[in-house]
Amino acid sequence: MTATTRPPVPAADLHTAFLRQLPRIYTHARYAFRHVACADSRDDRVAETVLAVTVGAALVSREIRLGLARRRPWRRPAYR
């Protein structure tokens, strides 16, 4: 199996792409927690979700910038 290397992606491009997706992430989290009756609790859950996605995106960005990104387990090749 041969490994393919990708050229490094500028951090500014990754940051811009993430900021474009942030409103969708926020809207999805609000929808996911619409059943929570207490507004303060709902807002806390939405904020924690957005924070978790932000931290995850930062880790992936770091892996990409350092060239450590590897094949994700959900992208396994199909075996026959």
Keyphrases for this structure?
2 helices, elongated, 62% helix, single chain, 80 residues, mainly alpha
The domain tally reads: 1
Task: Note the main sheet.
Answer: none
Query: What oligomeric state is this?
Result: single chain
Q: How many beta-strand runs?
A: 0
Q: What is the percent of helical residues? A: 55-70%
- What count of helical segments does DSSP give? 2
**CA radius of gyration:** 17 Å
Structural class: mainly alpha
Briefly say what this structure is.
The protein has 80 residues and is mainly α. Helix content is 62%, strand content 0%.
Summarize the helices and strands and which ones pair or pack:
Blueprint: H1 11-32, H2 39-66
Structural summary, described in words:
- With 80 residues, this protein is mainly α.
- The chain has one domain.
- 62% of the residues lie in helices and 0% in strands.
- The chain contains two helices and no strands.
- The longest helix has 28 residues, at 39-66.
- The model has no long low-confidence stretch (mean pLDDT 79).
